[in-house]
Amino acid sequence: MSAHEEVPPAATAGGAAAVAPGTADTGTPGDKAPRRSRREGLTPPSWLALLFLLPALVLLGFLVVYPIVYSVIRSFFDAGGDSFVGLDNYAGVFQGHDNLVSVRNTAVWVVVAPTVVTIVGLLFAVLAERIRWATVFKLVVFMPMAISFLASGVIFRLVYEQDPDKGVANAAMVAIHDTFAGGASYPGAGPRNGDGQPVKAEGGAVVTTAAVDPGRTALVPLLRVKPETLPKTAKPAAQPPSAQSGEVTGTVWFDFTKGGGGQSNAPNAGESGLPGVTVEAVRGSKVVATATTKDDGTFTLRKVGDGPVTIRLPQDNFTASYRGAEWLGSTLITPAIIVSYLWVWAGFAMVLIAAGLAAIPRDALEAARVDGATEWQVFRRVTIPLLAPVLVVVLVTLVINVLKVFDLVFIIGGGDPNASVLALQMWTEAFGGGNDQGAGSAIAVLLFLLVMPAMLFNIRRLRQERK
Fold this sequence. Notes:
Elements: H1 38-42, H2 46-74, H3 88-92, H4 97-128, H5 134-142, H6 149-159, H7 168-181, E1 199-202, E2 205-208, E3 217-222, E4 248-254, E5 278-283, E6 286-292, E7 298-301, E8 310-313, H8 333-358, H9 362-370, H10 375-403, H11 407-413, H12 422-430, H13 437-466
Parallel strand pairs: 3-4
Antiparallel strand pairs: 1-2, 2-8, 4-7, 5-6, 5-8
């Protein structure tokens, strides 16, 4: 080939065809082939996505949006829904005794219940990390969450029964009280009326009408003893034991013979001794000796000293026996229901806080211990600050839940106005006898407005954590 011969433009070394950048394999230079990514090909059109979401949106609007809008509109009308009353229903929430009690109780719930539940949940979570049977412990604490609020209310309604034979709380209190207080109580019991009787009533107590010298015996017969107050340990009344020098002995018994007969003011066959009665020997205004009657009603007052004494049964023997606290009374009913709420929700708080504890870097804790910090300082200065976001989420979630509490208050309170909260008052006004859906709707809207800031705060924190 000569130097003047032209080389074909498509020829290259090695015989491969040169393809200019930006050209397609069709051979047309400069033309870019249209490409459609695989992702775009798999993305459905927006109208198809909306079609699939439409049933859920319709259901959501019917169950959530429509009731909210209707309640807001209904809150501006009277009980019949015919007359426009403006903000009167909202002003009525803070008027009247029952409404004010509901507002006060709701404030107590919001301040106390979430705080206590969060603290107890934190303690349980920390404790669960330090015991061997942590799984079993968490299961037991969390188990009440599996029980409905209705069932929980029924359970605690029985726990708070006034009768110690039925209510667990009062049964425990009576057992503890009787362990330390001792003695027995015979309410309504007293001496036989009339002159010439060995004992008489004096200021609620029972005293002997004549003084008793040391070394002698005294008989203290009583009437009007209720059969249900007799202890199961009571035995037939016995004659007083012989008194030694410086002692006074005697018998306190129920001076009543079933079927009639017997001699008054003397222990007879078939008559019961009164155990557990406190007996005092009084000289002047000073108590010189004290004793408690045995199962057969006998007693021995020792070290009485010289000189006659008066035998006295104090007033405490004839007052009603301790029956525990009135949990469902006007004073304790709200704290009692909050305790039941704590029993249910402590497991929820424990699980969330335990998850937060598991996420804490162990290096920070070990570094604090190496620096000489005590366990309490590690907990207060390291663990709590690192757990702060979780604790805030738990606290705010519980605040939202507390504002809506209804079941426990309704079941345990049993309709007592002293236990009412805004959620229960809303139901009472609208459906529970008030028949004023305007006032009930106003309370519902107020609750919605109270819940909204806490709910928005929770959503904002969750978004920040995702970022």
